[in-house]
Amino acid sequence: MSEFLPVTHEEMKARGWEQADFVYITGDAYVDHPSFGAAIITRTLEAYGYKVCIISQPNWKEVEEFRRFGKPRLGFLISSGNIDSMVNHYSVSKRRRKKDSYTPNGEMGKRPDRATIVYSHMARQAYPDVPIIVGGIEASLRRLAHYDYWDDKVRHSLLLDAKADLLLYGMGEKIIIEVADALNAGIAVEDLVYIRGSVWKTKDLSRAYDYIMLPSYEEIVADKMTYAKSFNIQYENTDSIVAKTLVEPCQGWYVVQNPPGERLTQEEMDYTYALPYTREYHPMYKELGHIPAIDEVKFSLISNRGCYGGCNFCALTFHQGRTIQTRSKESIIEEAKKITEDVNFKGYIHDVGGPTANFYAPSCDKQITKGVCKKKQCLHPNPCKQLKVDHSEYLDLLRQLRTLPNVKKVFVRSGIRYDYVMYDKNDEFFHELVEHHVSGQLKVAPEHVSDKVLHYMGKPTRSLYDRFVRKYYAINKKLNKDQYLVPYLMSSHPGCDLHGAIELAEYLRDINHQPEQVQDFYPTPGTLSTTMFYTGVDPRTMTPVYVPKNPNEKAMQRALIQYKNPKNYDLVYEALQKAGRLDLVGYEPECLIRPVKPKLPVKSSKLTTKSNQKQQKNYQKPSHKKAYEGGKKKRKSR
Question: Which residues form the Radical SAM core domain (predicted)?
Answer without folding.
Answer: 293-567
